[in-house]
Design brief:
318 residues; alpha/beta; Rossmann fold; 2 domains; 11 strands; globular; binds phosphoric acid mono(formamide)ester
Length: 318
């Protein structure tokens, strides 16, 4: 593995999942792998789970982790080639990234989309520029369009939870929200479940909330949430803003919020969410505090997903 930006950087999802589960039962078995190695975690946007779980994962394999809040602790970066930097940006990524590439052995980057210009966001300029100029492996800690560490975590969580000898039925359902949110988690979850191939996969959302077909192709897509939920083993709840007419809120119908009544349609499904979640907007208290929610287990697994990715990157760069 050279970088970890999307599912395309992984050859063997099942192998990664099994290795992550092995780390979960023996976190320190590769303690010497990261000895004298350092990871820089660059945050252009806020985070709790990704930041802490990646630091813990790095420490578990003996790496030092240093967090840097770009734009808050440091200079605001410019990413456009040939930019005339007469505005707010102080340092170009082509000057900063090679330095970071000398300070660290791996760089993690979190960068959200603007949700104003689809072409720009979907070009993943920020991540591409770090890959181009840092000269060391880059890990996405969530980018403009994808959240691969979250998606690997989600597949790990489903694998360890589902014990039957058949494919689980997984439903990704849109949920209401008061803010315009990125499509990253939904895009990435769809891309990973489709690439994994070990599930029956349905996506349900209101009209106008279609995602990019490049990520969803292979899933059954319906606007009828009740129909989608029927016999589901896992319900993944997430809001996203519109993709076609980009970054808008067309619907905030609370009927789309999952309830215990809707859960009766499922096969006693486990409920997932990447967190943070807006209670009683995106997901109800009765679900989050109920027996079917596995959101804490899911967030805990962020450590093992990050640990397996960092170990693969270190092994590849030996
Ligand atoms: N799920 C997730 O990425 O959480 P944070 O934004 O807290 O890192």
């Amino acid at each position: 593995m050279k970088n970890f930006i999307s599912v395309k950087d992984t050859g063997d999802i099942r192998g990664l999942v099994q290795q992550a589960i092995a780390y979960k039962s023996n976190p320190f078995k590769d303690r010497s792998l990261g000895q004298n190695k350092r990871i820089g975690l660059l945050f252009l946007n806020p985070s709790m789970r990704t930041r802490l779980s990646t630091q813990i994962a790095a420490q578990n394999i003996g790496m030092e982790a240093i967090v840097f809040n770009v734009g808050q602790d440091g200079w605001m970066l410019e990413f456009e080639e040939e930019a005339i930097m007469s505005g707010n940006t102080v340092e170009h990524v082509k000057d900063a990234a090679p330095i970071l590439g000398k300070y660290f052995d791996i760089l993690g980057i979190r960068t959200f989309p603007t949700l104003k210009n689809k072409a720009e966001d979907y070009s993943e300029l920020y991540i591409r520029q770090f890959i181009k100029y840092a000269g060391i492996p880059i890990v996405s800690l969530e980018s403009a369009t994808l959240h691969p560490l979250q998606s690997l975590t989600d597949i790990i969580t489903i694998t360890e939870t589902f014990q039957e000898k058949r494919k689980p039925k997984i439903v990704l359902t849109w949920a209401p929200h008061v803010k315009t949110l990125p499509q990253c988690v939904a895009n990435s979850f769809a891309e990973w479940v489709n690439a994994w191939g070990d599930a029956e996969f349905t996506i349900t959302h209101p009209e106008d909330y279609e995602l990019d077909e490049g990520f969803t192709k292979g899933a059954l897509i319906t606007h009828n949430q009740d129909e989608a939920l029927r016999d589901a083993d896992f319900v993944y709840v997430k809001n996203w803003s519109t993709y076609t007419d980009y970054g808008r809120i067309y619907c905030n119908d609370p009927k789309w919020m999952l309830s215990n009544k809707k859960m009766q349609l499922t096969n006693n499904a486990k409920v997932m969410h990447c967190l943070p979640v807006r209670r009683n907007v995106e997901l109800s208290d009765e679900i989050l505090d109920g027996p079917n929610s596995i959101v804490t287990q899911q967030a805990t697994n962020r450590v093992w997903a990050a640990q397996v990715v960092l170990s693969k990157l270190l092994q590849s760069s030996k």
